Predict the 3D structure of the following.
Amino acid sequence: MAQPFDTPITEAGGRLTGPWRGPRQMLASQEYGGHASIHDDATAQKLGFKGGTIEGPTHFSQVVPLGVRLWGERFLSEGNISAHYRNACFEGDKARAAVTVPADGESQAELRMERDDGTEVLKGTIGIGDAATTALTARLAGLPAPHLLVILRDVAVGMKTPRQTVRMDADQNMGALYPFSLNDKLKRITENSPWYAGGDNPFGRAIIPFEMVSVLLNHVGSDFPAKGPAVGLFADQEIRMVKGPLFVGETYEFEREIVGLSESKRTESMWVRTHVYAPGGHDVLATMLLNSAIMKESYAPYAAEHAELKRRHTL
């Protein structure tokens, strides 16, 4: 049987560290809501970035071999990656991931990724089994209530979408939001695995990489009533396998729920938890927690609408 990864990993000072890799930009032509995204150079530069950003979950592929090193193939069926995105990577950047080595029997490790200039790209946790104490579980629980939402003023915690059907075939173009296929991704993924392309593995089928689980669950647009057009980015993300992995060519159903709302000086955020099921099933196979942060300055009437809402609140 083929080994899942041949990624060189070093252990020193109580940490496992992966190699420097150059993640690839594959979303330069992404569109949503009829406009370009933060991954388009011109759009990103208008918002103060040096160019189109590389999507956060792209980095999860560098983390997975570290999880497999710690917990074996169980990480692929019960593992989780929980990350707060700190700074973006761009085409040409080098980055590496590192995790602390947990004590024997522990099911969670601290995670950090950095660029080769020392800039922190993300931080969080990886683990297996119960995800009650992940980095994002703690972060979500500690969020202060937003003061005055404009773009998300019609969105409320507890809103849910009906179940939708999704599937990822190897050659399936994933649409305007993700204009490439799994096979396209596997030609550029930072850490490839024969387990992603065939059934020579304990599961007997090709499995969907963690970063492509994000594509599977996000390529169908959100049904929540956010104002727009506006440009968003991923600020926090957790992907968790419960009864995984998820398989290439398999049909799944998912539903989304708003579990939190927050804001910063530049963004308004909705925290969405997605549950994945077999068609007609009730057992959760996987979950994703995603903080979609929308740039206030990208919503043209933001200032005027904020002033009007503030005026109404003071009457």
Remarks:
- Residues 10-314 form a domain with the Thiol Ester Dehydrase; Chain A fold (CATH 3.10.129.10).
